[in-house]
Automatic annotation (TrEMBL):
GO BP: any one term: proteolysis
Start and end residues of each Subtilisin-like protease fibronectin type-III domain: 21-103
Taxonomic lineage of the native organism: Eukaryota, Viridiplantae, Streptophyta, Embryophyta, Tracheophyta
Pfam (any one): fn3_6
GO molecular function, one term: serine-type peptidase activity
Keyword annotations of the record: Glycoprotein, Hydrolase, Protease, Serine protease, Signal
Similarity annotation: Belongs to the peptidase S8 family.
Protein name: Subtilisin-like protease SBT3.3
Highest rank taxon of the organism: Eukaryota
Amino acid sequence: AISQLVGRTTVCSNPRPSVLDFNLPSITIPNLNEEVTLTRTLTNVGPLNSVYRVAVEPPLGVQVTVTPETLVFDSTTNRVSFKVRVSTTHKINTGYYFGSLTW
């Protein structure tokens, strides 16, 4: 697609990012059949020296682990990344499942 825009062959030097790592406020995992890990980055829009602790309500049959569990923002840190590990033992997904991850 980039080659068509610029009119010449283009090779990207970095590996293609996973669709799971697009920094969106929602998390969608198509065809979860074992385990995936994704990354999100938050920007603090609250007061300086804010501390947030994660609260997770996973869908039934799905395990969710967030690392780190606490985000600390101070005068030198206003952006923090965290990882979300999502796994299931279900081998067949037959629909949509909803949970929540709140800071």
